[in-house]
Design a protein that fits this description.
β2 and β3 form a beta hairpin. This protein has a five-stranded mixed β-barrel with strand order 5-8-7-6-9. With 234 residues, the chain is α/β, with parallel strands linked by helices. It has one domain: Rossmann fold. α2 packs parallel to α6 and α4 crosses α8. It is built from eight helices and nine strands. It is globular.
């Protein structure tokens, strides 16, 4: 057990999928895993371990934002031996050609600030995905006919942003979408020698203001879960 995860030794798999929403973790475990067991309920941040095609998988909620994600990623790697962490989350599209329900695979994650910023001082570390995971995830999505976009994303530490100038500048530089966790996930994984990837379903659009309802965000993101599982085990 750790401060934030109540699982016993051996109850967490080496491969962990990390949705922000704990209810999405519960839905994904019930939908995709066999014989899944709840292994964490501390602070309501649900986690489940089961099998997918004979491979042990844990699906653990991370909470919203980089500080929360950082806690779970650090403890999963350092205390439970996780070696592959894949974020499965939602994001807001920043470019016109990206549509709601499309999937973005994050090659890099730019940010203004992360909990790891103090480690680097004056250095601007460039967090990036594990190439092997990324390559397999993209291939899996395209085999299924999913509209997949690959490139840089923006991890924001604020949800209600007051910087339209920043949004415009990032879009000008080809940033695909905005979310709140991937940059810290990639940084923590790099620090500890783990593999990491973020696969994101577009749930809303910063230009058109189209948005999915909350129920769809929780239950209809199956394509990215399948992509994550195939990337981890193919």
């Amino acid at each position: 057990m750790t401060f934030h995860i109540g699982a016993k030794p051996g109850e967490i798999a080496e491969t962990v999928l990390m949705p922000g929403d704990p209810y999405r973790a519960r839905w994904a475990a019930a939908t995709f895993l066999k014989e899944s067991v709840c292994i964490n309920q501390v602070r309501g941040m649900l986690g489940f371990t089961g099998t997918w095609k004979g491979n042990r998988v844990t699906i653990q909620g991370s909470g919203m934002g980089m500080p929360s994600l950082s806690i779970y990623a650090n403890e999963l790697i350092r205390d439970y031996g996780a070696k592959t962490l894949i974020r499965i989350g939602s994001a807001g599209a920043m470019l016109a050609h990206i549509k709601v329900r499309d999937v973005v695979v994050a090659m890099t994650a730019s940010t203004v600030s992360t909990p790891s910023r103090g480690f680097f001082r004056e250095m601007q570390f460039a967090p990036c995905a594990d190439f092997g995971l990324m390559e397999k995830a993209v291939a899996a999505g395209r085999r299924k006919g999913t509209q997949v976009h690959v490139g840089g994303i923006y991890s924001s530490d604020t949800f209600y942003d007051e910087r339209p100038d920043l949004t415009e500048m990032l879009a000008r530089h080809g940033v695909l979408c905005v979310e709140m966790e991937a940059a810290e996930l990639y940084t923590v994984a790099a620090r500890h020698g783990a593999r990491a990837l973020a696969i994101l379903t577009i749930s809303d659009h910063l230009l058109t203001h189209e948005a999915l309802p909350a129920d769809d965000r929780e239950r209809t993101f199956g394509e990215m879960v399948e992509m994550a599982l195939e990337a981890a085990f193919s």
